[in-house]
Amino acid sequence: MSETEALETHLQELRRGTIVLACLRLLEQPGYGYGLLEELEQRGFDTDANTLYPLLRRLEKQGHLTSEWNTDEARPRKFYRTSPAGSRLAVALTDDFRAIAASIDALSSEN
Amino acid sequence: MSTATLTDRYIDAAMRTVPEKQRADLAAELRASIDDQVDARASADGDRDAAERAVLTELGDPEVLAAGYTDRPLQLIGPRYYLEWWRLLKLLLWIVTPFAAFGVALGKTLSGAELGDVIGTTVVATLGTILHLAFWTTLVFAIIERSTAGKPSGVPSPRGAAADIASAPGVFSGWTVDNLPEPRESGAGFSDMVVTIVFLIIGAGAILWDQFIGFAPAYPGLSFLDPGLWPWWITGLFVVMAIEAILQVVVFLRGRWTFGLAAVNAALNVVVAVPALVLLFEGRLLNAEFWTTVIPPDSSETVATIMAIMTGFGIAAIALWDSIDAFLKARRAR
Lengths: 111, 334
Known about the structure:
The structure holds two protein chains of two kinds.
Chain A: H1 3-26, E1 31-32, H2 33-42, H3 49-61, E2 65-70, E3 77-82, H4 84-110
Antiparallel strand pairs in A: 1-3, 2-3
Chain B: H1 6-15, H2 20-45, H3 48-59, H4 62-70, H5 82-110, H6 115-147, H7 161-166, H8 190-212, H9 232-254, H10 259-281, H11 288-294, H12 297-333
């Protein structure tokens, strides 16, 4: 495995959980698949469509998202919104993310 | 001429493995997502066909995407059950295969088949046994893998795969320290040496008793082994048995079986088993008069034949197992 491949693999591992957190936070305002994909991209969360779409389904199945079809426009779209359970999960994940960031900062200050 | 677009075909392919009741909803959502993405890409560079092609290529194999939607496992047996499967399969192969091979060979020989027939049938039956064991064990585990799926697989716990496996709900209880294997018997302890030498002495005593006193109390002097074996064949056997006793002492002093000692052990087994089988085949190992004297004449011939065959298989099986056992102990002690 070359160095760039190893880097890619580790970055992917590191970012994996942050996509869930970003989705839960962004979907406090209802959103649909492609719109969310765009928004994640703009905000610096690099995500593939084939990762995001199944992830939304899974979070819905776990009760962290609710969904509703919007047929007002020409193209009907399924809109997702973070449920109260999803909001609680987002808070817990955010706290943990900050704790990890603090721990990592503490590592560099000791060196 | 088909009018289905690439997107139609893609959605169709993806929905094939999705359960019926989720299909309409998922198909509509996937179509909207693809159309959105194609629109966005086409408005940037104008070519709608190329955009459609690029978007679908990026989404990848539709069945993989569908598996992500439905949490369908994309492996026959995953890390949760792989080790259980492998341990059970090894155990079954070790236990069942030798018994099956031995039983088929014995049955075939007792029914009076030719040697070639016995070997052929045994080989085929053994291969069949291995295939059946492997197939059915794997099938059962593949079903268990699927029936306990549904755990979110996209977000592995940060503690890693081992923690995922340990905390997985399943049909098997989790690992505890009690599962740690005991240290293996080396086969080179003091008790191993004593037991082997005692057995050799009992064996030698039994042969002498048989030759000079006889095994059937009602017929003193009637031996089970052919009286013509005394004195040279039996003396030869005693020499080999003495060497075996010495070998055990050497193993004890070395503290372990080595490949060299295991090879000597195997050679000793050959030296005993091959002449014994040749003598048996020539009708010079067992006393022909034993059964005719002990059992009514109408059935004594059948009993004598069966006893001869059982003795032959017994000699071969013991020699083979003893040789293999020594090599296994040598490998373990490396």
